[in-house]
């Protein structure tokens, strides 16, 4: 197998697939390079293009999931309540703590940002998550909070 010819023929395909998931040329290039390394080390020479496509997709999805779990920002609602009087601030902090317990950490952080006035497209750039995922998580977070309020958990 001519390794350089294989790379030359498949690099545009692998890069395009990785870019469709990562939206970042640097991440896509890293994934493609890792894929070539894995194909070469594990000697997938029977069908390297097919195996490579699957590897690129899997590596891209794993990177997307890993980035989705990272905390890239830190907005603290407790600081925002500092202008309230003492009783209101105590109540607000108590409710925020309950909301943090009810929502998953990533959804809580997303809801914090959304409540702080960020637009959906700004959240896409900030969190490196697709627009549909952001809309879905905000919708589900609101739904969970409404149910928690109806069940007197808030």
Structure description:
The structure is a single chain. This protein has 154 residues and is mainly alpha-helical. It folds into two domains: 3-69; 77-150, Arc Repressor Mutant, subunit A (Orthogonal Bundle), CATH 1.10.10. Helix content is 78%, strand content 0%. The chain contains eight helices and no strands. It has helices at residues 3-22, 25-42, 48-69, 77-80, 86-102, 105-115, 120-127, 131-150. Helix 2 (25-42) crosses helix 3 (48-69). The longest helix has 22 residues, at 48-69. The radius of gyration is 22 Å and the shape is elongated. The N and C termini lie far apart (64 Å).
Give the helix/strand layout.
Blueprint: H1 3-22, H2 25-42, H3 48-69, H4 77-80, H5 86-102, H6 105-115, H7 120-127, H8 131-150
Helix pairs in contact: 1-2, 1-3, 2-3, 6-8
Salient structural properties:
154 residues; mainly alpha; 2 domains; 78% helix
The first-to-last residue Cα distance is 64 Å
- Mean pLDDT comes to 76
Number of strands: 0
Radius of gyration from CA coordinates: 22 Å
* Individual helix count: 8
How do the helices and strands follow one another from N- to C-terminus? HHHHHHHH
Strand content: under 5%
CATH topology of the largest domain: Arc Repressor Mutant, subunit A
How many separate domains make up the residues?
2
Which structural class do you get from the secondary structure elements?
mainly alpha
Please tell me the CATH architecture of the largest domain by its name: Orthogonal Bundle
Task: State the helicity in percent bands.
Answer: over 70%
Contiguous runs where pLDDT drops below 50 for at least 5 residues: 69-75
Which CATH C-level class of the largest domain is it?
A: Mainly Alpha
Shape category: elongated
* Biggest β-sheet description: none
């Amino acid at each position: 197998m001519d390794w350089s010819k294989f790379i030359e023929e498949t690099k545009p395909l692998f890069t395009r697939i990785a870019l469709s998931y990562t939206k970042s040329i640097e991440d896509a290039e890293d994934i493609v390079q890792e894929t070539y390394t894995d194909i070469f080390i594990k000697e997938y020479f029977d069908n390297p293009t097919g195996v490579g496509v699957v590897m690129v997709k899997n590596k891209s999805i794993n990177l997307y999931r890993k980035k989705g779990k990272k905390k890239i920002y830190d907005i603290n609602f407790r600081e925002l309540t500092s202008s309230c009087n003492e009783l209101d601030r105590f109540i607000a902090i108590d409710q925020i703590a309950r909301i943090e317990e009810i929502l998953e950490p990533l959804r809580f952080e997303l809801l914090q940002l959304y409540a702080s006035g960020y637009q959906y497209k700004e959240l896409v750039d900030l969190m490196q998550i697709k627009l549909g995922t952001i809309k879905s998580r905000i919708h589900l977070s609101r739904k969970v909070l409404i149910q928690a309020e109806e069940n007197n958990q808030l």
